[in-house]
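Q: what sequence does this backbone want?
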């Protein structure tokens, strides 16, 4: 790891009714593609790269799941804030 790179770790809770399903996972992939940092999401004993839709779906994370997120890279802080917003906003699926 270069001196300018950082590692940020956080835990986010799945609060949308459908859990981490295809549309939500696609949003994570889209977000991951916007940053140089590498995002890794872990639920229970399974991990997935934030760039892999299929791997994200295998996390099997329903409503209420806690997802550990590790972000490594030069823009890790910004990526961390962005993915946190995705989870807090329920991937745009919360009832208004």
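A:
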């Amino acid at each position: 790891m270069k001196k300018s790179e950082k590692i940020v770790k956080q835990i986010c809770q799945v609060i949308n009714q459908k859990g981490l399903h295809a549309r939500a996972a696609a949003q994570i992939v889209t977000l991951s593609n916007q940053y140089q940092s590498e995002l890794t999401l872990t639920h229970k004993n399974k991990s997935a790269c934030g760039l892999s839709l299929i791997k994200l779906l295998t996390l099997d994370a329903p409503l209420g799941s806690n997802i550990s997120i590790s972000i490594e890279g030069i823009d890790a802080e910004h990526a961390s804030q962005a993915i946190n917003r995705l989870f807090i906003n329920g991937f745009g699926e919360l009832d208004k």
